[in-house]
Amino acid sequence: MNGQGTISFDEIRVDTNYVLKEGDKKADDVLKNLEFDREQKQTIVPTDDTEVRESLIYLGQAEVLENESNRDRRDRLADLLYQNPGLRAQFHQRQLNSPTLETGLGDASESEDEDFYTPASELLVDCRQFLIRDSLRRAQERLRDERCRADSQDVHAIIVQRRNLNAKLSKYELWGSQVVSSRPVSGVALSPDQKFVACGSWHGDAKIIDSESLEILTSFDAIHDDKIGGLDWSSDSTLLATGGADKLVKVWKPFSPKDSAVELKGHEGRVVKVKFHPSDRYVASASFDMTWRLWDVEKQIELQLQEGHAKEVYCLDFQCDGSLLCSAGLDSIGRIWDMRSGQSLMVLEGHAKPIYGVSWSPNGHHVATGSADGTVKVWDIRKIGAPFSILAHNNIVSDVKFDKDSGKTLVTSSYDKTISVFASDSWLKLASLKGHTDKVMSVDISRDFSHLYSSGWDRSVKVWKLGVCNS
């Protein structure tokens, strides 16, 4: 007892020298056996059933007992080693003589070491050094422009401008439609110079159409041998990248593809989406082989093969500075990758179903993902927390796009046959556009918000204009 008339824990006597009612074993022996199970099983008892069987045979025991499971067999070996110090010493000597023998400890250490790295090639190192310089310059320019706007902004004027813009964006009307293929049109992309629209279909064909009239300017029947999944323009509108179910990524000049096509081979599954890096030197591709890859356009080689998703990678997009890439897919998660180091910086978890679309805002810190759960989630990479969730559609969200200049508008397409327009200052839905007769698969928006382009299962490309009736 202490001075206060109470008993401390250190003074309590622990008696384990008694026989348990459930048998003839003493409590002390049972506790020691439990301690052995906890420690020794992790260090010397194999986890692989083949090794357990070989160990039992080595110790002169029956390999298999009637109705014995793998776990029961391992427990039998553990009991045998605990009760017979001589056999345990013999077994330990066998392990020393067979360094390849699997043990519980080795298995545990391997499972804990989940991350692994492979040496970067000299070309990839050169690429990353370039990306450091290039992305730093772009980030400096973007931040300088943002500071200038912040120094000169008039809050009242900005509010009035946004209200006027939001009112305007609610007045999109269907202006024209053009059937461009015999199969669903899976992708539509407006050129950066706003003059042309590229579209690709599940037939494997691609077409270049006029952005105003939707007149077909050029048509190519066999760009890919199977479904075209994604298209993307270079920043100067001179090159087009496409990916197809033939496992190829192709980069070609839109008006002379046969003379200029570059084939990038390496994927082992369907290529679903492709994206030019802001520098135009590189192209990234997402594939059903559960990887995304980075390609050098000029050297026509694969620079990086990136794993990290548990299922097929369906979409990706570069941040405007070119330093980050977001990939997402059928495992319902997105990942933010640092292109300068190859590291995964963030995991975007929250969607209940596969992600089919991803888009970075020009502000550099918002990224939107569209999912089969009907929602669009907007993630702010500056902070860790729950994303803003938009109940966007009643069916699969097939594509998401921020406008490319200001990021004030987000547009989405869906298998519910509609296109939705959202304001990025409140994420309120401004318009729901109906005109497709079947699932909408892709959408894009012009820099000045005046035009929307969409494509889908009805084999058409449609253009929507602000407040213009097609008479």
From TrEMBL:
Single Gene Ontology BP annotation: mRNA splicing, via spliceosome
Molecular function GO terms recorded: U4 snRNA binding; U6 snRNA binding
UniProt keyword terms in alphabetical order: Repeat, WD repeat
Highest taxon, organism lineage: Eukaryota
UniProt keyword annotation of Repeat present: yes
Domain Pre-mRNA processing factor 4 (PRP4)-like: 47-97
InterPro entries: PRP4-like, PRP4-like_sf, WD40/YVTN_repeat-like_dom_sf, WD40_PAC1, WD40_repeat_CS, WD40_repeat_dom_sf, WD40_rpt
UniProt-listed SMART domains: SFM, WD40
One Pfam family of this chain: WD40
Positions in coiled-coil regions: none
GO cellular component: U4/U6 x U5 tri-snRNP complex
First and last residues of every WD repeat: 224-253, 264-305, 306-347, 348-382, 390-422, 433-466
PANTHER family in UniProt: PRE-MRNA PROCESSING FACTOR 4 (PTHR19846:SF0), WD40 REPEAT PROTEIN (PTHR19846)
Name assigned to this protein: LAQU0S07e00210g1_1
Organism: Lachancea quebecensis
